[in-house]
Amino acid sequence: MSIVDPADLKETAANLEREFGDSLYVTYLLPDCLEVTTSNVSKRRVLRFVLDRLDADTAQCIAFGDNMNDIDLLETAGHPFMMNNANPDLIKRLPDVPHIGNNSEAGVVHQLRKLFGIHDGQTSSK
Question: d(Cα 124, Cα 43) in Å, to the nearest integer?
């Protein structure tokens, strides 16, 4: 079920950017769902806030994304990963970000297990 026709959203996004300029952060949550927040709200800002509180560096951070609202998060994290089923526009925008499994196949869980050397309970036959 579509929230709104994507063509209408493109026009709406252009109108918002023209009317409000840099005071809004306009991006896509899904191809048929526009995300609009004030310009001082973003995943990058939240990530940096949390890392500052933890006294950690972005180089120590792992992030996962699958859509256009994840661009700034993936650009900020030291170890970004993109889902195989990510928005094609995100894939074009961040071509060097490694791809992992799909959301529906617990791709994040499998990648975390791999990164931290946690076995998933499956045995391999030799």
Answer: 38
